[in-house]
Predict the structure.
Amino acid sequence: MLGRVNHIAIAVPDLAAATAAYRDTLGAAVSPPQALPEHGVTVVFVELPNTKVELLQPLGDTSPIAAFLEKNPSGGMHHICYEVDDILLARDRLVEAGARVLGDGQPKTGAHGKPVLFLHPKDFFGTLIELEQA
Amino acid sequence: MLGRVNHIAIAVPDLAAATAAYRDTLGAAVSPPQALPEHGVTVVFVELPNTKVELLQPLGDTSPIAAFLEKNPSGGMHHICYEVDDILLARDRLVEAGARVLGDGQPKTGAHGKPVLFLHPKDFFGTLIELEQA
Protein backbone atom coordinates (compact mmCIF):
# COMPACT_ATOMS: atom_id res chain seq x y z
CA MET A 1 0.00 0.00 0.00
CA LEU A 2 2.71 2.50 0.97
CA GLY A 3 4.27 4.18 -2.03
CA ARG A 4 7.03 6.78 -2.26
CA VAL A 5 8.02 8.95 0.66
CA ASN A 6 6.52 12.20 -0.64
CA HIS A 7 8.14 14.34 2.04
CA ILE A 8 9.49 14.51 5.54
CA ALA A 9 8.06 17.47 7.44
CA ILE A 10 10.15 19.34 9.98
CA ALA A 11 8.53 21.97 12.21
CA VAL A 12 10.77 24.95 12.97
CA PRO A 13 10.31 28.08 15.06
CA ASP A 14 12.26 30.33 12.66
CA LEU A 15 11.76 29.49 9.01
CA ALA A 16 14.28 32.02 7.68
CA ALA A 17 17.03 30.66 9.92
CA ALA A 18 16.18 27.04 9.10
CA THR A 19 16.12 27.80 5.37
CA ALA A 20 19.54 29.43 5.65
CA ALA A 21 20.90 26.37 7.51
CA TYR A 22 19.69 23.96 4.83
CA ARG A 23 20.78 26.20 1.95
CA ASP A 24 24.07 27.62 3.20
CA THR A 25 25.34 25.11 5.76
CA LEU A 26 24.02 21.88 4.22
CA GLY A 27 24.18 23.05 0.61
CA ALA A 28 20.67 22.02 -0.42
CA ALA A 29 18.34 23.61 -2.98
CA VAL A 30 15.48 25.37 -1.22
CA SER A 31 12.30 27.02 -2.53
CA PRO A 32 11.05 30.47 -1.64
CA PRO A 33 8.68 30.40 1.38
CA GLN A 34 5.02 29.79 0.55
CA ALA A 35 2.31 30.93 2.94
CA LEU A 36 -0.53 28.41 3.14
CA PRO A 37 -3.01 30.16 5.43
CA GLU A 38 -5.68 27.48 4.91
CA HIS A 39 -3.20 24.94 6.33
CA GLY A 40 -1.85 27.18 9.08
CA VAL A 41 1.77 26.97 7.93
CA THR A 42 4.38 28.69 5.86
CA VAL A 43 6.49 26.11 4.02
CA VAL A 44 9.91 25.95 2.39
CA PHE A 45 10.69 22.92 0.22
CA VAL A 46 14.17 21.42 0.49
CA GLU A 47 14.66 19.52 -2.78
CA LEU A 48 16.67 16.31 -2.55
CA PRO A 49 17.32 13.97 -5.50
CA ASN A 50 14.77 11.35 -4.37
CA THR A 51 12.28 13.16 -2.11
CA LYS A 52 11.88 16.44 -0.28
CA VAL A 53 11.99 17.87 3.19
CA GLU A 54 9.37 20.45 4.07
CA LEU A 55 10.30 23.05 6.65
CA LEU A 56 7.10 24.26 8.35
CA GLN A 57 6.58 27.37 10.45
CA PRO A 58 3.22 28.13 12.12
CA LEU A 59 1.02 30.69 10.39
CA GLY A 60 -1.98 32.20 12.17
CA ASP A 61 -3.54 31.46 15.54
CA THR A 62 -4.69 27.89 14.96
CA SER A 63 -1.72 26.27 13.30
CA PRO A 64 -1.74 22.46 13.41
CA ILE A 65 1.96 22.53 14.36
CA ALA A 66 1.65 25.04 17.24
CA ALA A 67 1.24 22.38 19.94
CA PHE A 68 4.22 20.42 18.60
CA LEU A 69 6.44 23.51 18.80
CA GLU A 70 5.25 24.23 22.33
CA LYS A 71 6.50 20.77 23.29
CA ASN A 72 9.59 21.03 21.07
CA PRO A 73 10.52 24.73 21.06
CA SER A 74 13.69 24.18 18.99
CA GLY A 75 11.71 22.29 16.34
CA GLY A 76 11.85 18.68 15.24
CA MET A 77 10.69 16.04 12.80
CA HIS A 78 6.91 16.36 12.64
CA HIS A 79 5.59 13.76 10.19
CA ILE A 80 6.34 11.52 7.21
CA CYS A 81 4.10 11.64 4.15
CA TYR A 82 3.73 8.51 2.03
CA GLU A 83 2.00 8.37 -1.33
CA VAL A 84 -0.86 5.93 -1.92
CA ASP A 85 -2.69 5.17 -5.16
CA ASP A 86 -6.21 5.29 -3.74
CA ILE A 87 -6.72 7.10 -0.48
CA LEU A 88 -10.24 5.80 0.20
CA LEU A 89 -9.11 2.22 -0.33
CA ALA A 90 -6.10 2.86 1.91
CA ARG A 91 -8.32 4.38 4.60
CA ASP A 92 -10.76 1.50 4.54
CA ARG A 93 -7.97 -1.08 4.86
CA LEU A 94 -6.37 0.85 7.69
CA VAL A 95 -9.61 1.22 9.62
CA GLU A 96 -10.33 -2.47 9.11
CA ALA A 97 -6.87 -3.24 10.53
CA GLY A 98 -7.70 -1.15 13.62
CA ALA A 99 -5.70 2.00 12.83
CA ARG A 100 -7.19 5.37 13.71
CA VAL A 101 -7.57 8.10 11.10
CA LEU A 102 -7.44 11.60 12.57
CA GLY A 103 -10.42 13.94 12.25
CA ASP A 104 -13.69 12.74 10.75
CA GLY A 105 -12.06 10.11 8.57
CA GLN A 106 -12.72 12.00 5.33
CA PRO A 107 -9.72 12.98 3.19
CA LYS A 108 -8.96 16.70 3.17
CA THR A 109 -7.21 18.66 0.45
CA GLY A 110 -3.56 18.78 1.53
CA ALA A 111 -0.90 21.40 1.03
CA HIS A 112 -0.15 20.07 -2.47
CA GLY A 113 -3.81 20.22 -3.56
CA LYS A 114 -4.27 16.46 -3.29
CA PRO A 115 -6.41 14.34 -0.91
CA VAL A 116 -4.64 13.54 2.36
CA LEU A 117 -5.30 11.77 5.65
CA PHE A 118 -3.34 11.63 8.89
CA LEU A 119 -2.99 8.49 11.02
CA HIS A 120 -2.82 8.49 14.80
CA PRO A 121 0.82 8.43 15.97
CA LYS A 122 -0.08 6.13 18.86
CA ASP A 123 -0.86 3.40 16.33
CA PHE A 124 2.54 3.83 14.65
CA PHE A 125 5.05 4.04 17.50
CA GLY A 126 5.09 7.79 17.92
CA THR A 127 5.31 8.67 14.21
CA LEU A 128 2.64 10.89 12.69
CA ILE A 129 1.94 9.49 9.21
CA GLU A 130 0.32 11.44 6.39
CA LEU A 131 -1.04 9.60 3.37
CA GLU A 132 -1.39 11.53 0.12
CA GLN A 133 -3.13 10.27 -2.98
CA ALA A 134 -0.41 10.56 -5.62
CA MET B 1 26.15 18.95 -0.74
CA LEU B 2 23.13 16.98 0.47
CA GLY B 3 22.34 14.03 -1.77
CA ARG B 4 19.58 11.43 -1.54
CA VAL B 5 17.69 10.73 1.65
CA ASN B 6 19.28 7.37 2.38
CA HIS B 7 16.86 6.54 5.20
CA ILE B 8 14.60 7.87 7.89
CA ALA B 9 15.27 6.17 11.23
CA ILE B 10 12.45 5.49 13.67
CA ALA B 11 13.21 4.24 17.18
CA VAL B 12 10.66 1.79 18.55
CA PRO B 13 10.35 -0.05 21.85
CA ASP B 14 8.97 -3.26 20.27
CA LEU B 15 10.49 -4.10 16.90
CA ALA B 16 8.27 -7.11 16.22
CA ALA B 17 5.11 -5.09 16.78
CA ALA B 18 6.39 -2.17 14.71
CA THR B 19 7.41 -4.50 11.88
CA ALA B 20 3.94 -6.05 11.91
CA ALA B 21 2.33 -2.59 11.76
CA TYR B 22 4.38 -1.54 8.72
CA ARG B 23 3.97 -4.90 6.98
CA ASP B 24 0.38 -5.83 7.79
CA THR B 25 -1.37 -2.53 8.51
CA LEU B 26 0.52 -0.25 6.12
CA GLY B 27 1.27 -2.93 3.51
CA ALA B 28 4.98 -2.23 3.12
CA ALA B 29 7.81 -4.63 2.28
CA VAL B 30 9.96 -5.24 5.34
CA SER B 31 13.26 -7.08 5.82
CA PRO B 32 14.01 -9.68 8.48
CA PRO B 33 15.45 -8.13 11.65
CA GLN B 34 19.23 -7.71 11.67
CA ALA B 35 21.13 -7.49 14.95
CA LEU B 36 23.96 -4.97 14.76
CA PRO B 37 25.62 -5.35 18.17
CA GLU B 38 28.49 -3.03 17.26
CA HIS B 39 25.90 -0.29 16.66
CA GLY B 40 23.70 -1.12 19.64
CA VAL B 41 20.55 -1.69 17.58
CA THR B 42 18.48 -4.31 15.88
CA VAL B 43 17.13 -2.97 12.59
CA VAL B 44 14.30 -3.77 10.20
CA PHE B 45 14.34 -2.08 6.79
CA VAL B 46 11.02 -0.86 5.40
CA GLU B 47 11.57 -0.66 1.63
CA LEU B 48 9.79 2.18 -0.15
CA PRO B 49 10.12 2.90 -3.88
CA ASN B 50 12.43 5.91 -3.40
CA THR B 51 14.09 5.47 0.00
CA LYS B 52 13.76 3.39 3.15
CA VAL B 53 12.61 3.65 6.72
CA GLU B 54 14.72 1.92 9.33
CA LEU B 55 12.96 0.69 12.44
CA LEU B 56 15.49 0.57 15.29
CA GLN B 57 15.23 -1.23 18.62
CA PRO B 58 17.94 -0.95 21.28
CA LEU B 59 20.35 -3.86 21.55
CA GLY B 60 22.64 -4.22 24.54
CA ASP B 61 23.25 -1.97 27.52
CA THR B 62 24.77 1.03 25.76
CA SER B 63 22.47 1.54 22.80
CA PRO B 64 22.72 5.00 21.21
CA ILE B 65 18.91 5.12 21.03
CA ALA B 66 18.25 4.19 24.68
CA ALA B 67 18.09 7.79 25.93
CA PHE B 68 15.73 8.74 23.10
CA LEU B 69 13.34 5.94 24.05
CA GLU B 70 13.47 6.95 27.70
CA LYS B 71 12.25 10.39 26.64
CA ASN B 72 9.86 8.96 24.03
CA PRO B 73 8.72 5.60 25.40
CA SER B 74 6.29 4.95 22.54
CA GLY B 75 9.03 5.59 19.98
CA GLY B 76 9.42 8.30 17.38
CA MET B 77 11.38 9.66 14.44
CA HIS B 78 15.04 9.56 15.47
CA HIS B 79 17.13 10.88 12.58
CA ILE B 80 17.37 11.48 8.83
CA CYS B 81 20.35 10.16 6.88
CA TYR B 82 21.49 12.02 3.77
CA GLU B 83 24.07 10.76 1.32
CA VAL B 84 27.12 12.86 0.50
CA ASP B 85 29.82 12.21 -2.10
CA ASP B 86 32.79 12.96 0.12
CA ILE B 87 32.28 12.85 3.86
CA LEU B 88 35.55 14.54 4.79
CA LEU B 89 34.85 17.43 2.45
CA ALA B 90 31.31 17.64 3.83
CA ARG B 91 32.62 17.64 7.39
CA ASP B 92 35.16 20.36 6.72
CA ARG B 93 32.56 22.60 5.08
CA LEU B 94 30.13 22.05 7.94
CA VAL B 95 32.70 22.79 10.62
CA GLU B 96 33.77 25.90 8.74
CA ALA B 97 30.12 26.99 8.66
CA GLY B 98 29.94 26.56 12.45
CA ALA B 99 28.02 23.26 12.64
CA ARG B 100 28.99 20.75 15.31
CA VAL B 101 29.89 17.18 14.40
CA LEU B 102 29.14 14.70 17.20
CA GLY B 103 31.92 12.65 18.76
CA ASP B 104 35.54 13.27 17.84
CA GLY B 105 34.75 14.55 14.36
CA GLN B 106 36.13 11.46 12.62
CA PRO B 107 33.77 9.43 10.41
CA LYS B 108 32.79 6.05 11.85
CA THR B 109 31.73 2.97 9.94
CA GLY B 110 27.94 3.10 9.93
CA ALA B 111 25.34 0.38 9.95
CA HIS B 112 25.67 -0.05 6.16
CA GLY B 113 29.47 -0.43 6.29
CA LYS B 114 30.07 3.09 4.97
CA PRO B 115 31.62 6.16 6.63
CA VAL B 116 29.09 8.23 8.59
CA LEU B 117 28.95 11.32 10.77
CA PHE B 118 26.19 12.76 12.94
CA LEU B 119 25.49 16.49 13.26
CA HIS B 120 24.30 18.17 16.43
CA PRO B 121 20.48 18.51 16.42
CA LYS B 122 20.71 21.92 18.09
CA ASP B 123 22.34 23.26 14.94
CA PHE B 124 19.50 21.91 12.77
CA PHE B 125 16.30 22.82 14.61
CA GLY B 126 15.90 19.66 16.64
CA THR B 127 16.64 17.22 13.81
CA LEU B 128 19.47 14.74 14.23
CA ILE B 129 21.18 14.48 10.82
CA GLU B 130 23.37 11.58 9.74
CA LEU B 131 25.62 11.96 6.70
CA GLU B 132 26.71 8.81 4.89
CA GLN B 133 29.30 8.66 2.16
CA ALA B 134 27.40 7.06 -0.71
User: Anything to note?
Assistant: The beta strands of chain A are 5-11, 29-30, 34-36, 41-47, 52-58, 76-84, 108-109, 115-119, 129-133.
